[in-house]
Write the structure tokens for this entry.
Amino acid sequence: MVWSFLRQLLLLTALMATTTTAAAAAVPASKALGFFRTVGKLKTLKRTGWVNHDVFEPESVADHMYRMAMLGFLITDAAVDKDRLIKVCLVHDLAEAVVGDITPHDGVSKEEKRRLEETAMKEILGDLGNDAVADELMALWLDYEDGTGPEAAVAKQLDKYEMIVQADEYERTQGKTLDSFFKSTEGYFTHPEVASWARELLDSRAQRLAGSGAEPEAKKPKTG
Amino acid sequence: MVWSFLRQLLLLTALMATTTTAAAAAVPASKALGFFRTVGKLKTLKRTGWVNHDVFEPESVADHMYRMAMLGFLITDAAVDKDRLIKVCLVHDLAEAVVGDITPHDGVSKEEKRRLEETAMKEILGDLGNDAVADELMALWLDYEDGTGPEAAVAKQLDKYEMIVQADEYERTQGKTLDSFFKSTEGYFTHPEVASWARELLDSRAQRLAGSGAEPEAKKPKTG
């Protein structure tokens, strides 16, 4: 009888401890909603480079990070942790939800930009009320900024490559010439896979500019 | 002499085999570019639900999947493989790049939508020229569609939750009433974390509609 009671008490205590741990590990709902609303700013924040070049309905920062992450899926380099690469791509511009998309032409020094963005990240993540989640997001962002791991190195290449794929699309669909974006990335692509994609894109563009392009075509949406 | 020559020949053969394997594993550059251009369609494809409700400058399908993936970062449920969840979120609407965003109000049956989207996925991925990458993307998409794993179950909840967070934002910023989106998700949120986030959002909305809302506010971008 006593043993049975003690056993039940022990089980109950263990259960309560588990429940408390699980509850403590979750992000508080009001904090989560605040975070999601902050992330939502990236959907309406237009990439400054396109705005400055009068691109019509330019993509959002979220659009850019989305395709970057999808580029990550195609990296087969065994030295790269693909899941981590995809996460670095998703997080690398998160600070822009607070500070906006600062470009080299905005008169803000690289150091000041870094300081502003790090402060923004701390502000966004400090509000989460969950250290484990905040630490993961901060580590991914710092990895990209400080470029220590192989994933950060590839993510930086994908960031620039995604930009020139988009520049090429705006040239084709909006009859623009966006040379500066291609010039700014000359010699930048050193990862073998990204470098081969960049060569393909530059060849395709060169053929188009020479007025003779047969290029890889995207599938066309049928509706929407 | 002969042995030395044979050894070098063997080494060379081994090296060539390695190089061939590595080359075979990569996605051919022209295929990769075609894929990226297809993915790019998701940046300009507007979500049909918002278009049908005359939302001004509605988000893209890429915007939606981006925030869904970011919601995934906040799931702390130990039963869920978070990296896989994030990838399911990124891939689940990929077929829309070809078939567009078909909604329940478009007169297309669920079965026909599924058939169209599966065909589109096969078309997109069949063009990749890399079975390993194509298989991963297809498995993630099928997981979401057929909902067998815990990640698929949570991803479906995030899909609807992200939609109502966005509906609430359009209500607040565009003075709209988008009741139908909230009605269509009543009773849908069963995962404890997503359910708590949904309750918080619905409470916040109810307070706003009652004209008294103090709600979690997003950080404001300072530029851009």
